[in-house]
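# step 3/5: fold
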Amino acid sequence: MSFSFCDPSVRDTVVMLGGQFFSLPYHSLYETLETGVCQTSRSLNGKSILQFCLENRQVAKDFSTGMTGLAVEAIPLLAKLGEYGKFEVVCDIGGSAAI
């Protein structure tokens, strides 16, 4: 497993999934399921996920690089699933790394 961390996309994805962006909201998952209303802000000191990321730049960076890591692995697989011949341009308008 440690050898796979040599691949930056794997490392970045693991850091994201184990970091605050994903772990803290799980602390309020029970209340969310119980009430039917998102309780994430309870785990983030009253902040929305966006506010939390804006105030915690490392969390935002870890999320961004982690999502890019997922994309690097998934895009080639997803590209093989479709027939895109009738289109002049195919693009993904999400993400922050422009890959």
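# step 4/5: annotate
The longest helix spans residues 57-81.
# step 5/5: archive (pending)
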